[in-house]
Design goal:
Elements lengths: L1 H16 L10 H14 L3 H15 L3 E2 L4 E3 L2 E3 L2 E2 L5 E3 L3 E6 L6 E2 L9 H5 L8 E5 L15 E6 L2 H10 L1
Parallel strand pairs: 6-9
Antiparallel strand pairs: 1-4, 2-3, 4-5, 6-7, 8-9
């Protein structure tokens, strides 16, 4: 009997400790926090726009996962890497035309052709940049749970370009 318990114990511990942790390099939470810290230190609008462009492009490697949990207030979802490892959630980037009540989500996973729009961002086209903390964006639901950056514009050329791409 002792041999059976000993063998079962070795098997259980062997299986538990031999599991590979595939999420070691897949942590959007840490990446987001590092990016937010860098973003908060930059004062120039031009530099902030460049950081935003780089972050949107860098986050395009993460695709949205199926909802993990459905709640009464929405779904709790996240993003995964190319290997299917759960990584956390992305910061939500929105382009908001100043004259309209609409917005465009700047997500290269769902709309890869937005890259030309994102690459055209500059300080003349983007009027203002708003950062909403995680607990201030309840109106945007679970997609904004990791923070929201809203870019406003009055630039007619940019608005027309995004409408054409959309």
């Amino acid at each position: 009997m002792k041999k059976i318990i000993y063998i079962l114990t070795i098997m259980v511990f062997g299986m538990a400790y031999s599991q590979e942790n595939k999420n070691l390099n897949c942590n959007l939470f840490t990446e987001n926090e590092d990016w937010k810290l860098e973003f908060s230190k930059v004062e120039s609008k031009t530099e902030r726009i460049e950081l935003i462009k780089k972050k949107i492009i860098a986050d395009s490697i993460y695709k949205e996962t199926m909802p993990i949990i459905n709640t009464a207030h929405g779904r709790l979802n996240g993003h995964e890497d190319k290997d299917g490892n759960y990584c956390g959630c992305k910061i939500l980037f929105l382009l908001v035309p100043k004259s309209k009540g609409t917005f465009y989500e700047l997500n290269l996973n769902s709309r890869p052709n937005l890259l030309e729009v994102i690459n055209s961002f500059n300080s003349e086209k983007i009027e203002r940049i708003f950062y909403m903390l995680e607990n201030d964006n309840k109106a945007l639901g679970p997609n904004g749970k990791c923070g929201v950056i809203k870019l406003t514009t009055k630039n007619k050329e940019l608005i027309q370009t995004i409408k054409n791409v959309w």
